[in-house]
Amino acid sequence: MTSNENPPSPVWVKSSYSNGQGGECIEWAPDGAAARRVVPVRDSKNPHGPALVFPASSWTSFVSAVKDGEPRA
């Protein structure tokens, strides 16, 4: 069975680490990420541009590392 309906647009959330000065801003779409097993991420300054898609497990690891203050590689 196929459907001609388009899936709903993701609801984007701006990172709490974004600086509010127009730089270093990312957004992610958590809605349904667990079900999709992927997390889309985009540059909030370019909302109509491309989004990167990460496996949900990798995104979770990344967010945990940021929260824990792990040094950059």
pLDDT < 50 runs, ≥5 residues: none
Number of helices: 2
Determine Rg (CA atoms, Å): 14 Å
Helix proportion range: 10-25%
- The CA-CA distance between the termini, in Å, is 46 Å
The topology string of helices and strands comes to EEHEEH
Largest sheet: 4 strands, antiparallel
Structural class: alpha+beta
Describe the strand arrangement of the main beta sheet, using strand numbers: 1-2-3-4
Shape: globular
- Percent range for β-strand residues: 15-25%
What is the tally of beta strands? 4
Mean pLDDT: 79
Task: Explain what this protein looks like in three dimensions.
The protein has 2 helices and 4 strands, in the order E-E-H-E-E-H. Helices cover 22% and strands 22% of the residues. It has a domain of 44 residues. The chain is an alpha+beta fold. The longest helix is centred in the last third of the chain and has 12 residues. The mean pLDDT is 79.
Keywords for this structure?
22% helix, alpha+beta, 73 residues, single chain, 22% strand
